[in-house]
């Protein structure tokens, strides 16, 4: 079975006037560790409400015996019902990434662009799919259609192709992976991207609050909300 997992998380609103990220991490009776993170959609009414509803419904579903897929649908329904109760919240939504680590394996499910990273052997690997336009823009760079500099400042780079909004979900990433003993998992909102891959790796062994502080030290003028949950095996 391998060693048990432990988890910790922290967040900061960055340069934004409000916090739209919600998260939780908790141990389950079977020894698994569950982490859930939702990033409320910027520019949409009730992003913070949507993320809280999504995380709460997801956790409740799992604790009642639901699978990760069941829990995602429960989160989607909770947002639909929340918007139906309050017309001012129509159009709210969030990303969602959930991770269940147990023994030497991890399972995940995600919608949106919030990354799940594996830090291992000095490298950084994204495990889940990016449902923003960034992969399509990167493909344009690879084909020579646009330059890397143009891609970095492309206005559509962070546009989501899918989010949890109470409607039928067409893009869902779900997977599993066996892990080596030294691997750490980082469940993040996209505010982490200010730090860059190499510095994420360099700070991964530090307490999560220090990783958040490293992001803020970059001083990005429009720093987004940043939330990080770290899962690692106990010594």
Name the features:
235 residues, alpha+beta, Phosphatase 2c, domain 1, 28% helix, 27% strand
Which helices and strands occur, and which strands form pairs?
Blueprint: E1 5-12, E2 21-27, E3 33-39, H1 47-63, H2 68-85, E4 96-102, E5 105-111, E6 116-120, E7 123-126, H3 134-142, H4 148-152, E8 173-178, E9 184-188, H5 197-203, H6 208-217, E10 226-233
Antiparallel strand pairs: 1-10, 2-3, 3-4, 4-5, 5-8, 6-7, 6-9, 9-10
Can you walk me through this structure?
By secondary structure, this protein is of the alpha+beta class. It has six helices and ten strands. Strand 4 (96-102) and strand 5 (105-111) form a beta hairpin. It is globular, with a radius of gyration of 17 Å. The model has no long low-confidence stretch (mean pLDDT 90).
Q: On the 0-100 scale, what is the average pLDDT?
A: 90
CATH architecture verdict: 4-Layer Sandwich
Classify the secondary structure makeup into a structural class. Answer: alpha+beta
Q: Quick one: CATH class?
A: Alpha Beta
Q: Find the CATH topology.
A: Phosphatase 2c, domain 1
Give, in order, the helices and strands: EEEHHEEEEHHEEHHE
The biggest beta sheet, please? 5 strands, antiparallel
- Termini separation: 15 Å
Radius of gyration: 17 Å
Q: Which regions are unreliable across 5 or more consecutive residues at pLDDT < 50? A: none
Number of strands: 10
The dominant shape is globular
What percent of residues are in strands?
25-35%
Spell out the CATH superfamily: PPM-type phosphatase domain
How do you describe this structure in short?
The chain is an alpha+beta fold and 235 residues long.
